[in-house]
Amino acid sequence: MILEGKVWRYGDNVDTDVIIPARHLNTSEPKELAAHCMEDIDITFAANVQAGDIIVADKNFGCGSSREHAPVAIKASGITVVVADSFARIFYRNAINIGLPLLEIGEAVKNIKAGDKIRIDLSAGTVENLESGEVFKSQPLPGFIQDIAKAGGLVNYVKEARS
Amino acid sequence: MGMTMTEKILARHAGLASVQPGQLIKCKLDLVLGNDITTPPAIKEFNKIGRPVFDNEKIVLVPDHFTPNKDIKSAEMAKTVREFAKRHEIVNYFEVGRMGIEHVLLPEQGLVAPGDVIIGADSHTCTYGAVGAFATGVGSTDMGAAMATGDTWFKVPSAIKVELKGKLPKWVTGKDVILTLIGMIGVDGARYQSLEFTGEGVAALTMTDRLTIANMAIEAGAKNGIFPVDDITREYIKDRVKKQYEEVEADADAVYDQVVTIDLNKLAPVVALPHLPENVKTISEVPEISIDQVVIGSCTNGRIEDLEQAAQILAGRSVHPSIRAIIIPGSQEVYLEAMKRGFIETFIKAGAVVSTPTCGPCLGGYMGILASGERAVATTNRNFRGRMGHVDSEVYLAGPYVAAASAVLGRIAAPEEVIA
Ligand code: SF4
């Protein structure tokens, strides 16, 4: 699958409390969560994000609380994929489980700026910066995780495996 | 090749003779946990699978974050959990009045045992490593699927060995140990890895210290933190754990990615400055920082020994006029014990407020939200931006001695400044 979009750029250790603050966790409705997505780190995000945009961040994206509301909010805001130097493990698991693709490309994220247009080939695991023409390769997803992703998330995967 | 404690426990639950870091395995689960925030979405996913619960005695539901219900939406979420528990005859559902903060409650109620594999839709599920279990946080979808299947997948983590030597000096607690470690290795220092605590220093740590230390393994990015099982563990679980369990020991030739040594004798009371738990300084290194609020409680420091430490400082003293001090026992049992031992009276006489058990302010839920520009010293585990309220408020993490001393002096303070 090819995804192309404009970059929202964030730094190290973006935690799930800033992705979706706990004051909004009295709901799990994706649209309501999306309305407050990233508001404690970037007040402009929720109002301006366009369907198809992409988040690019540095190290340890999604650290902190296990709230699945964080990847749900990001996905519902229209973001199609998150690219980072590295991800915190629970966020990684949750994103895969709910069907939000993630790509880990290490320090190559340094070559991507806010507002850049990038193109992502999920099957090949490549990220191309359309501004500079540079192409970066991500770690391939383990086969088992690819199966969960292909099934459209964990619940479908479990259903398929048991039926 | 030898295995670490984590590898051994995972191998046993996967039905394998051995496992290696990086290997993807499917494990049987001894316990699946959820709270009032994470369980409602888990129920939604569970319902999509369309199977009964795998075992109504191995699912634990604790509405603790926004309960007693803070608003109508939270009340609806708690209701969803309550009705699910009723429909599926969940034995370990803890209603308001019987509940506590999940990670204080489960060990206390004997629901977690050495050698167990436990997942919880709460990142601090890693707390149970203190009793020698493999326990880790997951999301709601994982919880929902696990409630139906009784198993889940893991990538076997590689390990960091944390070798503890010596004994803690006066005024230094488990909180100072874990904050110091996070300061050393950083908030992603153990990302995807297990933190295996070991060494002769372990014997000098109380169960409360160990629970506090394992609780914050996630703040170093770890998948889990785990302690060896010794006489202190056995004494703690003796009258609590009713089920069969199997102690697991690391092999002498287990392989670790890295060894970090901490000499407990050399530690001092510390504080983690905003907005990351890795910004750790000894109290003597921080300049005068005035504060507005002190919170003592949470799954990190809401146990009876924590309240005892706070009471020791607050006995016969007063909370500084400019400070709101909020003390939250971690469970009904802790609350009752604190009352019997006179701590509650000490707190109230000192001018602190004592709350029913709840997560409350720890995650910026209610019961002590900060306004813009306000600062709090809290015995909680996260000081991320906006964690306790306004995005321009600040949280300083510390242990109960430091928090209580800070409440008395109205600024970040060491216990010795208050009491000789
Ligand atoms: S006390 Fe705080 S960290 Fe612990 S479970 Fe509750 S909200 Fe989470």
Give the helices and strands of chain A as they follow along the chain.
EHHHEHEHEEEEHH
**What's the mean pLDDT score of chain A?**
93
Largest sheet of chain B: 5 strands, parallel
Oligomeric state, counting identical vs distinct chains: heterodimer
Please identify the structural class of chain B as seen in this structure.
alpha/beta
Your description of this structure?
The complex is a heterodimer of chains A (163) and B (420). A seven-stranded mixed β-sheet of chain A has the order 4-3-2-1-5-6-7, with helices on one face. Chain A has helices spanning 16-19, 30-34, 45-48, 69-76, 89-98, 143-151, 154-162, and strands spanning 2-10, 54-57, 81-84, 102-104, 117-121, 126-129, 135-137. In chain A, strand 5 and strand 6 (126-129) form a beta hairpin. Chain A is built from seven helices and seven strands, in the order βαααβαβαββββαα. Chain A is an alpha/beta fold and 163 residues long. The mean pLDDT of chain A is 93. The longest helix of chain A has 10 residues, at 89-98. The two termini of chain A are 27 Å apart. By secondary structure, chain B is α/β, with parallel strands linked by helices. Chain B folds into two domains: 5-263, Aconitase, domain 3 (2-Layer Sandwich), CATH 3.30.499; 270-417, Aconitase, domain 3, CATH 3.30.499. Chain B has 13 helices and 18 strands. Chain B has helices at 5-14, 39-49, 72-87, 102-108, 140-149, 174-185, 207-215, 231-237, 298-301, 304-314, 332-340, 343-350, 400-409; strands spanning 24-28, 31-35, 59-62, 92-93, 117-120, 134-137, 151-155, 159-165, 194-198, 224-226, 258-263, 270-272, 280-282, 293-296, 324-327, 353-354, 375-378, 394-397. Chain B has a five-stranded parallel β-sheet. Chain B has a five-stranded parallel β-sheet with strand order 16-15-14-17-18. Chain B has a four-stranded parallel β-sheet with strand order 10-9-8-11, with helices on one face. In chain B, helix 2 links the parallel strand 2 (31-35) and strand 3 (59-62). The longest helix of chain B has 16 residues, at 72-87. The relative contact order of chain B is 0.14. Classes of the chains: A alpha/beta (163), B alpha/beta (420). The interface between A and B is large, with 40 and 52 residues. The site of iron/sulfur cluster has 13 residues of chain B, from helix 4 and helix 9.
